[in-house]
Amino acid sequence: MQKPNKRLKNQTCIVTGSSGGIGKAVALAMGAEGANVVVNYRSSKEAAEEVANEINKNKLCGEVIVVKCDVSKEQDVKAMFKTTIEHFGTVDVCVANAGMQIDHPLHEMPLEAWQKVLDVNLTGQFLCAKEAINEFLRRGMRKDVSNSLGKIIHMSSVHEVIPWAGHANYAASKGGLLMLMESICQAYAPHKIRCNSIAPGAIKTDINKDVWSTKEGRENMLKLIPYKQIGVPEDIGSVASWLASDESEYINGTTIFVDGGMTCYPGFTTNG
Ligand code: BGC
Description:
CATH architecture: 3-Layer(aba) Sandwich
Number of helices: 8
Strand order of the largest sheet: 3-2-1-4-5-6-7
Helix content: 40-55%
Order of helices and strands: EHEHEHEHEHEHHHE
Largest sheet: 7 strands, parallel
Structural class: alpha/beta
Distance between the termini: 42 Å
Number of strands: 7
CATH topology: Rossmann fold
Bound molecules: beta-D-glucopyranose
Radius of gyration: 18 Å
């Protein structure tokens, strides 16, 4: 649990895909900072409600609502923002986190597997960022809660820079996020909107459970991590809540890698 210091008091934060994994840890961290939190899920309502209950245990948090939305569908995303704005008045922070993997060697990858991953991981984040920006611009500055008009955090991956054989759809979606995030920053920073990405490395969640749940998989994973530690969702939650707060105000248009050094290519330690 985060040390609560209420850096996000009176702010409202949407976290997509927050019924589990990294999104859940981000939602908990935002709640611990005093934010109102929108816990978004696509299919696991019960899990999302459990996350909401967990946030509510912290008396310092704002209010929590649970909203169903498939981020790859424009009407769903619009409805999620409408519900949030009707309930809380506005949105201050949007964490576009929902993402998925459907892995296949490229020469065997069905078009549907390519399309679905791009739809959720890239188009979904575009749709959320678009709605967030429109709301920030409509609402105008609220200096009493933040020096920024609004904050967008894209959940990227080390695979926005590390190529990933057998996962080209996923790597392409994350590579695309880099340019989406930077283009948003370039266009909207003059409006005092901050847009950044977090790039997690190997974090223990369901998405990579098939790897870390076996001894061999864990050993292989650790070979890729100079810090010799597999990450946990809370490692991302604490960075996200800081990145949403004014403590990181001058950070804009960048990716923060939270990966134990994975992007330092440890394979080159003794070779090359
Ligand atoms: C992927 C995980 C993987 C990690 C490091 C993440 O973006 O979703 O499956 O373990 O990158 O390769």
